[in-house]
């Protein structure tokens, strides 16, 4: 397995861990009666700020992971793995792991910078595949 694919596998595991953490906090805050319902109404209890942030951080990862998968797929399928693409993949993973506490604890403006690093890593993978 290429280093980029290893980083992708770990990003997938991070995604699962992030989902479990956010879901657990939501269950604690609003109760399983709401979280297992079709959610046709607003919860009867408010979520804590950290829970809402963890859910938004997870949603952000849902959006970003597809970009990373595409970049890794292009690099892998075209057999263009280099030190640059490997560094981009591992830096993406580190940035996404750091993004979770950055969002949860409101690290301003660092959360946005961390997000930008992950996006730049995805762009690097696409550019490397094209060049």
UniProtKB/TrEMBL annotation:
Can you list the GO cellular component terms from the UniProt entry?
membrane
The record's annotation in SUPFAM superfamilies points to: MAPEG domain-like
Top-level taxonomic group: Bacteria
Q: Where is the signal peptide?
A: 1-22
Q: Does the keyword Signal apply?
A: yes
Chief localisation class: membrane
- Residues annotated as transmembrane: 61-77, 89-107, 113-130
InterPro entries noted in UniProt: MAPEG-like_dom_sf, Membr-assoc_MAPEG
For this UniProt record, the keywords arranged alphabetically read as follows: Membrane, Signal, Transmembrane, Transmembrane helix
Q: Pfam families from the entry? A: MAPEG (PF01124)
Q: Where located?
A: Membrane
Put simply, this protein is called MAPEG family protein
The protein's organism comes out as Thalassovita taeanensis
């Amino acid at each position: 397995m290429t280093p980029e694919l290893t980083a992708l596998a770990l990003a997938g595991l991070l995604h699962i861990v992030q989902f479990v953490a956010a879901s657990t906090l939501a269950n604690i805050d609003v109760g399983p009666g709401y979280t297992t319902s079709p959610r046709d109404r607003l919860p009867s209890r408010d979520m804590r700020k950290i829970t809402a942030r963890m859910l938004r951080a997870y949603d952000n990862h849902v959006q970003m992971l597809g970009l990373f998968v595409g970049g890794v797929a292009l690099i892998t399928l075209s057999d263009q793995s280099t030190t640059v693409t490997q560094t981009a993949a591992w830096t993406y993973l580190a940035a996404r792991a750091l993004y979770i506490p950055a969002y949860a604890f409101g690290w301003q403006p660092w959360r946005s910078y961390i997000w930008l690093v992950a996006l730049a890593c995805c762009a690097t993978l696409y550019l490397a595949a094209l060049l």
